Amino acid sequence: xxxxxxxxxxxxxxxxxxxxxxxxxxxxxxxxxxxxxxxxxxxxxxxxxxxxxxxxxxxxxxxxxxxxxxxxxxxxxxxxxxxxxxxxxxxxxxxxxxxxxxxxxxxxxxxxxxxxxxxxxxxxxxxxxxxxxxxxxxxxxxxxxxxxxxxxxxxxxxxxxxxxxxxxxxxxxxxxxxxxxxxxxxxxxxxxxxxxxxxxxxxxxxxxxxxxxxxxxxxxxxxxxxxxxxxxxxxxxxxxxxxxxxxxxxxxxxxxxxxxxxxxxxxxxxxxxxxxxxxxxxxxxxxxxxxxxxxxxxxxxxxxxxxxxxxxxxxxxxxxxxxxxxxxxxxxxxxxxxxxxxxxxxxxxxxxxxxxxxxxxxxxxxxxxxxxxxxxxxx
Length: 379
What we know:
Elements: H1 7-20, H2 24-39, H3 45-57, H4 62-105, H5 109-138, H6 142-158, H7 163-177, H8 205-219, H9 224-238, H10 244-256, H11 264-294, H12 297-303, H13 307-335, H14 339-354, H15 360-377
Helix pairs in contact: 1-4, 2-4, 2-5, 3-4, 3-13, 4-11, 5-10, 5-13, 5-14, 5-15, 6-7, 6-13, 7-13, 8-9, 8-11, 10-11, 14-15
Subcellular location: Cell membrane
Pfam family, one: Chromate_transp
Membrane topology: Multi-pass membrane protein
C-alpha cells in the first residue's frame, strides 16, 4: 500500500514526539496510535498491532522499537533508520546537557521538587492513555480480557514483565480462534543473538560500557521499567560507576525528559566518562533493538495478514497492553504519595479528558511549576 505521507513528514512527527513526548512507553505508544492511526491515518490498525507485537517479542525498549517499525512500514530500512534517530536524538541531547549540569554543579536537588509534580501528572497521562489503548485493542472479546488481566496482575505482583506471557497469550488466542488448523501453522521465531568480537582490552572503560549496555539492549524485554533493575545491578552493584543517589537521579532525569525512558543510559554514560561514555552507552543500548526490529520486519509484513498470525498478534497485543497497564499501577504506587500528588494526577486526567486540544507538554510544565512551589514553599 502506498504511503499517504512523505518520509520527511513522519520524520518530523517522531522528532517532535522525541522532543515533547512525556510519559514513558505506555504514553508514547498510545500517542503513536492516536496520532498516526486515528488522527492522521498514516498507519493502519493492522500495521500498528504487528509493530507492537514485534516490539514485545524482541528485547529492547518498547517505544523505540515500535517507532522503528512504524518507520519501516512504508519506507523500509531507510525509514526505520531515520525515524529511529529522530525519535531518540532529542532526548539524548537533553540528558547529555543535564549530565553536564549535574557534574558541573554536583547534583540536581531541584529535580526532586520538579519531579514531585511531573510524576503525578505523568501518571494521569499514562493512565488515560492506557485506558484508550485497552478500549481500542481489546474491545468486547472476553478471551483477550482474560489474557489482559492475567498479564496485568503478573506485572503488578512481580513488578516485572515476562516475554513468556506474551508468547502464551499469542499461542492461546490462536488456539482459541483457529483450533482445527493450529498444528499446521508456521510461527516466526525470534532471531538468535549474535555478538561482534571486541579487540580492545577489557580494562578500557569504553569497552566495558559498550558491552554492559549492549547486554542491556539485547536481553531486557519490555518497557523502560524493565531495564531499571538490570541497570542498577550493573551500574551500582557490579561496576560501582554510580552511587545510589546518582542512580536515582539518573532515573529521575529519564522520567522528566521526553522520549524513551531508556535514554537514562545516556545520562549514566555521561557521568561515567563524559560525552564519549554517553554516546557509547546510547549506541550500545539502541543498536540491538534496531536490528531486532528491522530484520524480522519483512516477515511480519509478508505473513501478518494470515488469520492465524493475526490471532497470534492479537493475543500478544492483549498481553502487552496488560503489562503496560500493570506498569502504570506500579508507577502510580510509587509516585502518588499524598493528597497533592493524587490531586495533580486527577486534575491532569480531567483536563485531558474534557479539553481534547490541550497538549501534554503544557500540562507537564504546569505540573512541574506546581510541584516546585509545593515542595519549596510548603504550600
